[in-house]
Amino acid sequence: MSPKLLERGAFARTWDPKIVCVITLSLIFLCGAAAGAVVMNLGMHNRLHQPSFDTAAGREQYFSRMKRELNLSPAQQEQMESILNDFWQYYRTVLSDSKFKVEQILNPEQRRKFEQMLQQERQPK
Fold first, then answer.
1. Is 84 exposed, middle or buried (0-12, 13-18, 19+ CB in 10 A)?
2. How far apart, in whole angstroms, are the C-alpha atoms of residue 52 and residue 88?
3. What is the pLDDT of residues 42-88, one digit of tens each?
4. Are the C-beta atoms of 121 and 115 separated by less than 8 Å?
5. Would you list the domain boundaries of the chain?
6. Which of 19, 53, 83, 94 registers the highest number of CB atoms within 10 A of its CB?
7. How many C-beta neighbours within 10 Å does residue 97 have?
8. Neighbouring C-beta atoms of residue 66, cutoff 10 Å
9. Closest CA to 84 of 64, 113, 100, 109
């Protein structure tokens, strides 16, 4: 055997298996993070995190999808928009009434915690 080959073999044997494992796992993690960043930058993030349908952006997106996928005529679009607006108004009324009813059964401390829970739910994730 050549002396260089023996040196290389001796160097390879000095690696601690724990260090090799940590380095390997770190590289795998970094590759996964890089792949995730690329996918999110290619627009997947927006498709995964759609606006809530009870927001203005969500209503507009939902209505646009209905017009496009159902190929609605202008008259149908007008009727569909009216129906959906009625639904969203009903939805908001039900939420408001339900919140009021829940708050009526809670003590002040529970109401404070309930409000905090609602605020956390409203924050974008």
1. middle
2. 12
3. 766 666 667 776 678 888 888 888 899 999 999 999 998 899 889 88
4. no
5. 1-49, 52-125
6. 53
7. 10
8. 16
9. 64
Structure tokens at 87: 């639904």
Which pTM value belongs to this model? 0.47
Instruction: Tell me the three-class secondary structure of the chain, residue by residue.
Output: CCHHHHHHHHHHHCCCHHHHHHHHHHHHHHHHHHHHHHHHHHHHHHHHCCCCCCCHHHHHHHHHHHHHHHCCCHHHHHHHHHHHHHHHHHHHHHHHHHHHHHHHHCCHHHHHHHHHHHHHHHCCC
Distant-in-sequence, close-in-space partners of 63: CB < 8 Å, separation ≥ 6: 80, 81, 84
